Amino acid sequence: MSVLSRKEIKDRLKKSPEDLESIIITPLLNEKFDHDSIDLRLGCYFRVPAVTTIECVKPYQQDTVEHYGELVHKPYIRGSKINTLILQPHHAVLASTLEYIKMPGDVSGQILTKSSWARIFISIASAPWIHPFYRGCLTLEVTNLGNVPVALPVGKPMAQLVFIKLEGQIKLEKDVIEGSYAGAVMPEAPKFKA
Amino acid sequence: MPDLDAQVKNEGVRILRLCKDLSEFILSGQARKTYLVETEHFLEYIKKSLEAIDEFVKQTITKEMPPPLAKVRLKGFDLIREGLSWIYIFVKEAIDADTLSIPYSLIIFLNYVATELQKPEKVSLVVLGSSDLMYYKYNLKNLRNLTRHIASKVIKDYPVLPEDIGVLKFPYCAAQEVLVNCILFHEMGHYIYEKTNLEQQFLHDIESNLTTFVQDNKIIEELKPKDPDLAFKKLFIYVGGLMSSWADEIFADIVAIRILGPAFHFALLVLEQILRTDIKRNRNFSRTHPADDFRFKIHAKWLNKGIWDDIIKDRKPDVFDRLKECEKLEFEKEDFSISCEPPLGEDKDLKEKLHTWMFEEFEKMVVKVEEEALAKTAGQEPISDFNKNKNESNDSLITKALEHGVVPSTVYDKKKQKRHPNPTTILNSGFFFYLGNMDSLLEKVESSDSDIDKRMNYEKRLNQWLAKAIEDWQILLMENKL
Asked: Which residues of B fall below an 8 Å CB-CB distance to A?
């Protein structure tokens, strides 16, 4: 298992989507990557736990799950008027990255909280693994583990994506779109399949 | 003798309660939802109107007033109530039109384009969901006049509806659609038409030419009406109403074609498919619209002028066959007719003569409409982006991205150069993809869903990717990264 370097990430970014080894990240607002990862920004859409009349969320009953997280939009605004979502202590919200990602077929990804955010007790991922060929805006499970509210700024870097090359000889044959959340551009309600 | 003073107080309190309820309704929406700047601007106007009414009514009902003044105040309340009945409708629609309930990124682009076209004037297009399965520009003339009337007759400080505000309606259930909502650019064209003085010019010309036509053909004499002036007025209302509506529609179509190219034409076709199960050739001009086939004749002409013709001729011929057929249609060959009854009694010959004359006059109007639409959209050359680098156009790069389930806001060419296609290119490539390449995407989708579910899911995904690509383009523009 090896981690892709900055150079390899940049080379793969320039490949056509037909190329099974291509990485796609769009929009890429800052191309100054770290040596071994890229920064991802907080997107404009959130799913906030709704105040609901549902007595209990039952994961295999889609009607109880579908509207548990209420969709909220905070448009991207530049400069001093940064849009924010306030996250209360010990609360969680589903968010997504501003960037839409397509993973190569020979690489998995891991999404991590940027260290500055971790230092104010914000965690961004509890399901951080990204499979080869996945595409979509990555869902972030943002949790405020601290004791005071935190303003989450839309469009600012919060996560790091590390690319991990699969070991052994990988024979890539064709691009495959699979998974319930493939192609998502915002955090979606969970889809439990029996 | 009724107690007018008490009546003023009773009616005033009722008006105050309605104002308070409406203000609270607006605040509750604003506290929970996010709105576009244009919708906020509209809601702020409504809030100011309510505040002005509130202040005026409070001052009025706290004063003792003699019966003559009370009568004046009651009349003023009638006008205020009329204003409130408009506000009542718009408050609900505007509060419902938060950014999740409208095609958000498309409307930002729409306002961006309209602002460019109307420079240096301000533009604020408010897009609201309609319960009708149709698109239209709301006519604000009467409301604007009413607000002027209230300001001049009743409340001195009453705010007049700002000139920059335009209201467009779309079917509320189509909020997540990007492709079919391209029709909103036609509605934007109506807003721009309203800002020109074409309608006044046309009505003036129609009146004068109709006078000559009526005299030359002794039409009023043949009708033998009791009141010849009234008969002419009725005829002018009929002729002027129809022809100025048709001109407005053609202007809006040309503006939409100039901005969006084939994407607008496709959107109209898709809407036709949604509205009708049996699509018949429509060669009839109605009270409000020219015949569809005449509109398509104009589309064909302007797609050709925009050099789109080179691009579309090799694609999906079944989509463009109708355009080619419509291009050949002529008024002279009697390919079109008018499906309305003029106020000319039962005389069929007279009706035919009038309608033939109307078409002759309308052809002249179309020339003027085309000139004005061209002048208004000068400098808009979206095709240059679509077809940039013929060997490897932005269109082909977008198609590749969509085939692989990728948002096409950043694409790389063979020379590894980065490109960010503009929204017009994104919408057109998206439409071409939707019409001809969906299967190439669906082949890559491995899913246990039925084919129909898979198709439906990925049509929705396609619209989401295109909306995201347009939103990304706007972010890149804001960040000076284009």
From this structure: 34, 98-100, 104, 400-401, 403-410, 412, 414, 416, 418, 420, 441, 444-447, 458, 461, 464-465, 467-468, 471-472, 474-476, 478-479, 481
Nearest chain A alpha carbon to B447: A178
Q: Phi/psi at B169 (nearest 5 deg)?
A: -120, 145
How close is the nearest chain B Cα to the Cα of A131, in Å?
Answer: 15
- Hey, are the CB atoms on A183 and B458 less than 8 Å from each other? yes
- Burial of residue B224 (number of CB atoms within 10 Å: 0-12, 13-18, 19+): exposed
Comparing CB atoms, the residue among A24, A76, A177 nearest residue B445 is: A177
Q: Looking at CA atoms only, how far is residue A189 from chain B in angstroms?
A: 15
Is residue B377's pLDDT more than 80?
A: yes
CATH number assigned to the domain with residue range A2-165, chosen from the 4 options 3.40.50.620, 3.40.50.2300, 3.30.1390.20, 2.70.40.10: 2.70.40.10
A141 is catalytic: yes
Catalytic residue among A18, A21, A70, A141: A141
Picking from B260, B272, B328, B268, the residue whose alpha carbon sits closest to that of residue B300 is: B328
A63: confidence class by pLDDT, cuts 50, 70, 90? confident
Radius of gyration of chain A (CA): 17
ipTM confidence score = 0.95
Chain B CB contacts of A44 under 8 Å are 471
Cross-strand bridge partners of residue B171: B130
Which residues, 6 or more positions from B413, have their beta carbon under 8 angstroms from its beta carbon?
B389, B392, B397, B419
Contacts made by residues B52-55, CB under 8 angstroms, sequence distance 24+? B52/B155, B52/B157, B52/B158, B52/B159, B53/B15, B53/B19, B53/B80, B53/B83, B53/B84, B53/B155, B53/B158, B54/B16, B54/B19, B54/B20, B54/B23, B55/B157
**CA of B420: which chain A residue's CA is closest?**
A27
| pLDDT given at position A158 | 96
- Domain boundaries defined on chain A: 2-165
pLDDT band at B448 (very low <50, low <70, confident <90, very high): confident
Predicted TM-score (pTM) of this structure: 0.94
Answer left, alpha or beta for residue B252, where phi above 0 means left and psi between -120 and 50 means alpha.
alpha
CA-CA distance, B401 to B249, in Å (whole number)? 36
Three-state DSSP class for B315? Answer: coil
The pLDDT confidence band at residue B277, using thresholds 50, 70 and 90, is: very low
* Tens-digit pLDDT profile for residues B105-156: 999 999 999 999 999 999 999 999 999 889 999 999 999 999 999 999 999 9
